[in-house]
Design a protein that fits this description.
The protein has 313 residues and is of the alpha+beta class. Helix content is 20%, strand content 41%. The protein is built from 8 helices and 20 strands. Strands 2, 3, 4, 5, 8, 11, 12, 13 and 14 form a 9-stranded mixed beta sheet that branches. The chain has a 5-stranded mixed beta sheet with strand order 15-17-18-19-16. α3 (103-111) crosses α5 (190-201). The chain starts with a strand and ends with a strand. 37% of the residues are buried.
């Protein structure tokens, strides 16, 4: 008996301690399919929402990777690390307490990171420098110079704070933990936000926790635990047509027009001109034919989405 090959977008709640590439490997095993990709990595320390493209739906990932993201995080004031998070080695441990860092001072430091800002990414990052990953260079002790980039931080709010006593290199050190919520554009490093808040306060800082709760309109509340073998991964796949309609306007196509568009022909449609993407949806079978732009009433393909082939079951 033949059944359709897996095809769709999978929302995964990534656990702490594994890489995004490991999540992809688990998905490949669970689905028996090699064609699996992801839309934006999460550091091993981080948890939360990771979007995977399965089968033909990997073509949607290009349109998902640039979506805005929301995180909850904990920033520890008083200690800096070489990676700006808890996975790195401490570089300074000046220590601090709530009595030394007023709420007003924290708000000024946080407010400076809101809006459209110029941010230098964390040195231990996946950004390439002369074809090599920055984290590889940093771990080998080589100098890493990363250029600033423009990012947008639409929300950055402190939701709680507390004093802690932690051990750093065998010494008890007073720190202040700030619980925060961040909504930002793709390419923003929350670790770098923590670093820069600590620099502004003169305390140093790093992230001790990071959880991605939203990517665009998608929520971690709807994600699955991919390591739970009792979860039906196929059943959890979001159909590409549903994902496309969530993100973009749509235009219906009758069977003849759907075939013509799939064959690369330009198809007439009653839709305002736009650079797109617009989801072209076949009314027969309610499936995504492609993402298109519209010029002079004609659909022009940006990305086609072939029907997944059958596989033996």
């Amino acid at each position: 008996m033949l059944e359709s090959a897996p095809d769709g977008i999978l929302l995964v709640d990534k656990p702490q301690g594994i890489s995004s590439h490991r999540v992809v490997s688990i998905a490949r095993r669970r689905l028996g399919l090699k064609k699996v990709g992801h839309a934006g990595t999460l550091d091993p320390m981080a948890t939360g929402l990771l979007l995977l493209g399965i089968g033909p739906s990997t073509r949607l990932l290009t349109h998902l990777v640039g979506l805005g993201k929301t995180y909850t995080a904990t920033i520890r004031l008083g200690v800096s690390t070489d990676s700006d998070d808890a996975d790195g080695a401490p570089t300074t441990a000046v220590g601090t307490a709530s009595a030394d860092v007023s709420e007003e001072a924290v708000e000024r430091a946080v407010a400076a990171q809101r809006g459209v800002i110029s941010q230098v990414p964390s040195t231990v990052s996946a950004i390439k420098v002369d074809g090599r990953r920055a984290y590889d260079l940093a771990r080998k002790g080589e100098a890493v110079v990363l250029h600033s980039r423009t990012v947008t931080v639409s929300h950055f709010d402190v939701t709680g704070r507390g004093d802690r006593l932690v051990t750093v290199d065998g010494t008890d050190t007073a720190v202040v933990d700030l619980d925060v919520v961040v909504t930002c554009s793709s390419g923003t490093y929350v670790r770098a936000l923590a670093r820069d808040v600590g620099a502004a306060l003169g305390t140093g800082a790093h992230l001790t926790a990071l959880r991605r709760t939203e990517v665009g309109p998608f929520s971690v509340d709807d994600a699955i635990d991919l390591e739970d073998e009792s979860v039906d991964v196929r059943a959890a796949l979001a159909r590409p047509v549903d994902v496309a309609r969530t993100l973009f306007p749509s235009v219906p196509l009758d069977p003849a027009d759907a075939k013509d568009l799939a064959d690369g022909k330009r198809v007439a449609a009653d839709h305002p001109d736009t650079d797109g993407p617009v989801a072209a949806v076949a009314t027969e079978g309610d499936r995504l034919v492609g993402l298109v732009s519209v010029r002079r009433g004609l659909l022009r393909v940006i990305t086609n989405f072939p029907t997944a082939p059958g596989v033996g079951a």
